[in-house]
TrEMBL record:
Family annotation (Gene3D superfamilies): 3.90.1200.10
One annotated GO biological process: secondary metabolic process
UniProt keywords, alphabetically: Kinase, Transferase
GO molecular function: kinase activity; phosphotransferase activity, alcohol group as acceptor
Pfam short name (any one): APH_6_hur
Native organism: Actinokineospora alba
Name of the protein described by the UniProt record: Streptomycin 6-kinase
Region forming the signal peptide: none
Coiled-coil portions: none
Classification via InterPro entries: Kinase-like_dom_sf, NH2Glyco/OHUrea_AB-resist_kin
Amino acid sequence: MLDLDAITARLEPRFGKATHRWVPGLPDRVAALVSEWDLRLGAEFKSGNSSVVLSCKSPAGDAILKLSPDAYAVGEETEMLRQFAASGRVPAVFEAARGAVLLEAVHPGALVEKLPVPPSPAEYAAFLTDLHSAGDPASAPRKLADWIDVLFNSATKRGADLTTSRKLRDELLAVPTDTVLLHGDLHLGNVLTDDTRGLVAIDPMACAGDPCFDAVDYVLEGLDRAEMVRRRDELAAAADIDVQRLDAWCRVTAPIGATHVSNPGHRAELAAFGRGEY
């Protein structure tokens, strides 16, 4: 059921030659996990360049089997999902093994970035509050400052002008603030809808830092400056976070986001927001 050629083509840009060592053993690896965890496999999700994801049935219910050549990354994700589990805002971890994890399936699992009507600021604030109430910041594999450096390096390679972003970042990090376990990569493609829990986060890149940081993507998904400002102000009020710090973090990350979006209008609005033109 696995299209090994397609999987190789998808993973090779990320993992290079390691892909060709890992993919041939994938069918046997999946078969072993199916036997060990008593799974019935469903369809493969054809997305992402870092893992193979399969739907399945498990003794615990509908599930997602995720495997990757990067066993460290899978192990980190598994541990951080367990840290966030008490929030009720992440999928449960059913089973885990080196380079593989079996996660609770989220239903209906619609990507928030694809919804015709986005969650309200109040809904998103409740989601963030729950998420940040769980987990120990000391367990984070990185600090927010380190993760920002990774994002800056990547955006610089894509041509972003980060002069203002770096200055604002330094000013923000110089002021002591609350520290929580952050999801770290909470773009709206990593937020799903769940029938009973509302919003659920997947694929954390967890770090310890300012709770405002996890709010920036919701703000910057607004397609124009007026909508971004509305989301900023209403989300800050609903989540009881400092609107000035939220604004500053949005300005730090807006030029990074501008390098990812394909819509020229949204890209221009992000760049303008980053320059404080509102």
